[in-house]
Write a structure and sequence with these properties.
By secondary structure, this protein is α/β, with parallel strands linked by helices. Among the domains are: about 1-130 and about 460-520, Rossmann fold; about 190-335, no CATH class. The protein is built from 19 helices and 15 strands. The chain has helices at about 35-45, 75-80, 115-125, 140-150, 155-185, 185-200, 205-220, 220-235, 240-255, 260-290, 295-315, 320-335, 340-385, 425-430, 430-445, 465-480, 490-495, 520-535, 540-550, and strands at about 1-10, 15-20, 25-30, 60-70, 90-100, 105, 110, 125-130, 390-405, 405-415, 425, 455, 485-490, 500-510, 510-520. The strands form three sheets. A six-stranded antiparallel β-sheet has the order 2-1-4-5-6-7, covered by helices on one side. A six-stranded mixed β-sheet has the order 8-12-13-3-14-15. It is elongated.
Length: about 550
């Protein structure tokens, strides 16, 4: 329930701080006084788009803040899920707009995204304005009315979850068919590529070894010459380094007993001799290995040409990548070979999901049709007292393909007279009749969902007299059912039934036009209703009529 509304620097409002109470309240005022401004401010708290033009001229920031009593509406889970302090007796929603275009939203002083504010706002306030009457022409609105009254939210949620799975499976099936078709078109080419790569008998480390061997054979004479020279220097019979080092070592070893300081040098030379002898032996081994084999050279170069050719053809740089490509092509071919089986399994899965969706949608449709019969009867009961004694209200169902909403296509049919055939309500009903239809639907809906606050913005358009009084009785009844109903009205019959009465007015000041809103006392109500009855010149008769209307309560 809305307890308090604070507005600062919003269009024509300097500063407004007004309290609200439970039950049925009314707001009146001359056209252009600023009632729409109040609704616009509340709309910002419901997450509507902000416009810097709404900031009062000459100011830098506007603030709209509302206090709510949520203690009876079970919203604790919402606050927990969004990590916001839950203060049920006094929850505060605030929106701030700056002249620079910044917009900030707060719930209980916690900054929140606008989407979160909108989600909470839609649970707190329902604003019914005149343009909402156009919704009667919308199929989704009509279906939503039935679902709300049938309390179908859980079943719809379960159905839509299953329908989403069905749609995902359908998209996967479509993609699979496209992939299979494309793969089959390329099957011959894929088999050619696989055979070409398979016939190459590639091994992962082969390229590096072959390139090393090719480099060795291409420089065989140069390598052999260098090894021969090294071997001759190391192992030559007369001048060989190894032989001479051996002689030096032996000579020094012979004087170790008579000249002990030479022992260390002798040992080091002996170690060097052993190492150098080992090196000389390895050089000799390598020299024996180096032989130019024309046949081997031809094989190595041919093998490398095959590898290089495949890498260039497939725009790859390593054998590992070629082997991976071969594996991928093999998988594609295997996919093609088993595609019929995979396609059949996927089709069965889609069919099963569709069948499940159809069962759930059919069950949902059955509930809707039963609820529609109740709605038809209830609407007749509500509309007859509202001045449509011969009303006929029917809801027709047609079947449509599976959709997010199910299989139902609904239409609200209406006739106000016995002789007039039933037609879609938005096409045949007058403005006043549509207002009464919408009020009746809202009253039924409000009995199902516990919206804390409902605001009717001139829902009385096109009606007057006794009918207006009956509409006010309905709103009064709605307000007595643990909810808050606020009606913005031009009709004195409706204004007189409000438990609280607020008046919106505007005044001209040196700074410009200013809108204001105040709660009227008993005398103020009499004067306001008298003015609504007679215009700016309030007569004694109007005063008496106003007093008579107020006694209705």
């Amino acid at each position: 329930m809305l307890k308090q509304l604070y507005i600062k620097n919003y269009t024509l409002i300097d500063e407004l701080d007004i309290s609200f109470g439970p039950g049925f309240s009314v707001i009146t005022g001359e056209t252009g006084a600023g009632k729409s401004i109040i609704l616009g401010a509340i709309g910002l708290l419901l997450g509507q788009r902000a416009d810097t033009k709404a900031i009062k001229t000459g100011t830098e920031k506007c603030i709209i803040e509302a206090h709510f009593d949520l203690s009876q509406y079970h919203l604790q889970v919402f606050f927990q899920e969004n990590d916001i302090d839950y203060i049920p007796e006094d929850s505060i929603i605030r929106r701030e707009l700056t002249a620079t275009g910044k917009s900030r939203a707060f719930i209980n002083d916690t900054p929140v995204q606008l989407g979160i504010m909108k989600e909470l706002g839609e649970r707190l306030i329902d604003i019914h304005s005149q343009h909402q009457n156009l919704l009667l022409n919308k199929e989704d609105f009509q279906l939503n009315v039935i679902d709300i009254i049938a309390n179908n939210s859980q079943k719809i949620g379960e159905y839509q979850k299953e329908f989403d799975n069905y749609q995902i499976a359908e998209r996967q099936l479509k993609q699979l068919k496209e992939d299979i078709e494309k793969s089959r078109e390329n099957e011959d080419f894929l088999r050619y590529q696989f055979k070409e790569l398979d016939d190459a008998h590639l091994e992962e480390d082969e390229q590096e070894l072959l390139e090393q061997e090719s480099g060795t054979m291409n420089h065989a004479e140069e390598i052999k010459s260098a090894l021969y020279s090294a071997n001759h220097i190391l192992n030559g019979d007369e001048i060989g380094i190894v032989s001479q080092l051996r002689t030096v070592t032996q000579n020094l070893q012979n004087i170790e007993d008579v000249y002990s300081p030479i022992k260390e040098i002798s040992a080091r030379l002996d170690s060097s001799y052993i190492e150098l002898k080992d090196i000389a032996d390895e050089v000799n081994v390598h020299m024996d290995k180096i032989e130019f084999d024309p046949q081997r050279m031809e094989y190595v170069n041919g093998r490398l040409n095959t590898i290089y050719s495949l890498q260039q053809k497939y725009h790859l740089s390593t054998i590992a990548e070629l082997l991976q490509l071969k594996e991928n092509i093999g998988q594609q071919l295997g996919h093609i070979e088993h595609s019929d089986e995979e396609l059949s399994q996927t089709e069965q899965q889609v069919a099963k999901l569709k069948e499940c969706c159809m069962e759930m949608a059919t069950e949902l449709s059955s509930i809707r049709k039963k609820t529609a019969k109740l709605v038809e009867k209830e609407m007749a009961k509500r509309l007859i007292p509202l001045g449509i004694p011969h009303v006929r209200f029917e809801i027709t169902f047609d079947t449509k393909p599976l959709s997010k909403e199910g299989i139902d296509k609904v239409c609200f049919l209406f006739s106000a007279n016995k002789s007039t055939p039933l037609q879609p309500v938005a096409q045949i009903a007058s403005g006043g009749e549509i207002a009464r239809v919408m009020l009746s639907l809202k009253a039924m809906i409000s009995g199902t969902i516990k919206l804390p606050t409902i605001i009717f913005d001139e829902i009385d358009t096109g009606v007057s007299g006794k009918i207006a009084e009956m509409m006010a009785e309905i709103m009064l009844e709605m307000g007595n059912q643990d909810r808050q109903v606020i009606s913005i009205t031009h009709l004195p019959q409706i204004a007189a039934l409000g438990i609280r009465h607020y008046r919106v007015s505007k005044t001209e000041t040196s700074q410009g036009t200013i809108s204001n809103m105040e709660e009227l006392d008993h005398a103020g109500r009499i004067r306001e209703i008298a003015q609504m009855l007679s215009g700016s010149d309030i007569t004694d008769a109007a005063i008496n009529n106003a007093k008579a209307l107020l006694k209705i309560k």
